[in-house]
Amino acid sequence: MSILSFFVLVPVLMILFLFICRNMQQIRTVMITGASALMVLAITLTVMFIQERAAGADAEMLFTASTVWYPSLNIAYAVGVDGISVAMIALSAIIVFTGVFSSWNMNMAREYFLWYCLLSVGVFGFFISVDLFTMFMFYEVALIPMYLLIGLWGTGRKEYSAMKLTLMLMGGSAFLLIGILGIYYGSGHTSMNLLEIANNLAIPIEIQRWVFPATFLGFGVLGALFPFHTWSPDGHASAPTAVSMLHAGVLMKLGGYGCFRVAMYLMPEAAQELGWIFLILTGISVVYGAFSAVVQTDLKYINAYSSVSHCGLVLFAILMMNQTAMTGAIMQMLSHGLMTALFFALIGLIYGRTHTRDIREMGGLMKIMPFASVCYVIAGLASLGLPGFSGFVAEMTIFVGSFQHSDTFHRVLTIAACCSIVITAVYILRTVGKILYGPVQDSHHLELPDAAWYEKISTLGLIIAIAAIGLYPLGISELISNSLTPIIGKFAII
Amino acid sequence: MDFSNFLLLQQEISLMAVFVILFIYDVFCSDKGKQWFQLVACILFALHTAVGFLPFPTGEAFGGMFVGSNITIIMKNILNIGTFLIFLQANNWLKSQETAHKRGEFFIITLVTLLGMYLMVSAGNFMMLYIGMETASLPMACLATFNKYKERSAEAGAKYILVSALSSGVMLFGLSFLYGCMGTMYFSDMSIQMVSEPLVILGFVFFFSGLAFKLSLVPFHLWTADVYEGSPTAVTAYLSVASKGAAAFALMFTLYKVFGTIEAIWNPLLWGSAVITITVGNLFAIRQKDIKRFFAFSSISQAGYILLGIIAGTSQGMTATVYYVLVYVFSNLAAFGVISAVENQTNGNTLISAFNGLYKNNPKLSLVMMLAVFSLGGIPPFAGFFSKFYIFMAAAEQGQFLLVFIALLNTVISLYYYLLIIKAMFIKEGDEQSVGRFVTDGYNKTGLVLCTAGILVIGIISCIYEHIGALGFGM
Prior knowledge:
The structure holds 2 protein chains of 2 kinds.
Chain A: H1 3-20, H2 24-54, E1 62-70, E2 75-81, H3 83-102, H4 109-128, H5 132-143, H6 145-153, H7 158-186, H8 194-200, H9 205-222, H10 231-238, H11 241-266, H12 268-295, H13 299-320, H14 323-354, H15 365-368, H16 370-383, H17 390-403, H18 408-436, H19 453-471, H20 473-493
Antiparallel strand pairs in A: 1-2
Chain B: H1 10-28, H2 37-51, E1 59-61, E2 66-68, H3 70-95, H4 103-122, H5 126-144, H6 151-182, H7 187-193, H8 198-215, H9 222-230, H10 233-257, H11 263-287, H12 291-312, H13 315-346, H14 358-361, H15 363-377, H16 383-397, H17 401-427, H18 442-460, H19 463-471
Antiparallel strand pairs in B: 1-2
């Protein structure tokens, strides 16, 4: 059995163990053991991957394994990873791990963690799959637990948000499924394997013309593509802390990764031809998301709109279709995943104590909970792209890559998207100034305790990861740039 | 006469044997001895179901009247499994004061309808198909009206018998046209002489309408909700699963075997009815307050999905259809099992609000219900996801991408109302209308465990699909 299958197996085992748990203590033990195991697996995988590459393994995907599942339909359980998937798996493992600590005191913990584990099954399964069917299956497995996680453990208009989120994402997956069927039959219905289709089979351009938009849109909904992003603010605002973390941190990356791996990789001709439509939409996402964040007063809404803006940047960079921009896109996925998760962890921490997320009702938190506040400042600075943190590296690479296009259309869009950095600074600094500094708004807040140890683990873990990418970006870019070559090669041929 | 023909009828003969034994038991046994009736009936039927999995001779019997092939055996097995699960679920209802004295009748009548469905599936001649359909329909009306002191049940029976008489009439009318054109009723002879002339098309349309009544395709669906709501829950489950499955199989066989050459005529017809069936079924299901009416509309839209596989007209389409029905049997019966368990606690109240807060009091039942609706809604990793995916694949293979897309958008709508059930059970708080903690009886429990196992396993292991796939055939 390939090491990759363990990423699915471990959460499944965790689910089984949770069924026999009797008390909170046992539940926590299972979750921490499982999440740590996933972390160890992710680190092992990264190391093994780098070693294999260094040893000269130049296959597109490593650790590939394939078991025929439905022979008559050419469906197989096929796994394999390249540098991008490894990076995504590592990201997911970090966030799953920290998320466990962020949801330390949950009511109905067993049910909560059951769904949480199912979500992880879907996420990991998606990143390791190279078969369109299994990929789609895991994609849906990752979506459906959100309904109950938000509907049961959420806050505010949770039922409305949960339903909206589920239906919009499932609507996206309807587009995706029709796209997958189009790919399968368009390429001569001999294989569902991504690599096989990409390298040996050709999809006629007439079919690509409708399959590409369908697939891109399908994944784009999850990547908060304008105008299908409306599930994101409501969903994130209502979700419990760890679910927001996982959702913004990992699940939205499924969208970006899918656009890249399925839509762009399999249908480069149509991407060249029709990419401009989506480029405009993502451009709007970037700017509009940032502007919307400026006017919000709820901490989670601010962060959710900022996610729309940052995830828009991911899709924006993918559509630029050159090596630099795409490297930036992957880095932005990592950076945004960690940073948003940190934000949501801190917001959950603050909300759990102050019982409000309205920035007008808070102030002077720096005096009350210094640890959490410092972390919040760090998250904010990473988000607005301060050098030394991951955000800077990612955005810098994206804009340099985008500016390599010399035509007016791309230039104008790039300049517009660059403006979002300034707007990001506006809403981040405004929030930080309002809630962390200044006079204490509510005298009840004075009594509040600072972060507990489990919350410290969660936040520190994320900060270390953010700083690591910010200080040593070369490691990440080397990990992923090799894997971009086949895709960039496809664009070069056209 | 060549008696070896009867060898092909093994399943029918075995069913008749069960029928006769139960009949004698019911008539001649004392009341005291009848306390074992349920158990005996279930065991006998389980044996009969098991017999279906033995190897059979295949071929045509009685000059082509009756066709026994491997795929018909699988179809009959699916119907058997459905019926067996319903027998298990019916226990608690049959024990109640009103129905205890006629418990035997329930089993016997059900077995007769099942025999009718066997004949529908195995028909090689339109007369055989018609006889099978009548044998399946008329006793069904008795079942619908089984709670005869309840007004709704009586109403349901009356509605069912009127509608099924009408649909039989329409169907026979169409068959008379077809006979007039071709001078034969045998499938094999008709398919050779099939030409697309107006009278044949007219005959086909009438014939299709007759079957569409059984399958409750829109616009022939108007009886469904009322009959489903009024009938006893076990009968509703039987109607929605076995009756619908048999009609789907019969429609598929006739279209493939007889009308294959005039595909250009029926393809748009089925296309249109699939689209409106799925859409109307879904849109009406959203508004329902009563869970049996709700599942009536949900089953209407499921019938529309079945049409997708039939439209394909390929062996992949046939495989997907049979597989879809198999999965549908398990998913829908899991839902009905929970409904009948809850209904027993609420004295026949089947409002959705009775399910509010079910998870707090009865976590296992609500988990089964959750699996059932997720499977019906096509959520992985449950069987319903696989069956939907394959039925879409089958339709897409024939280039029906638009149809698949409409169906896919409808799955999103269907997910909305399926999630309403989940919301009622898990998120809403219980109130005075909702049920308290209770213990489900052993039979129903067994049934629910079987359904759950089916939902979890059928998709994950591929051998069932592949087995059906090896036997399916196209036009």
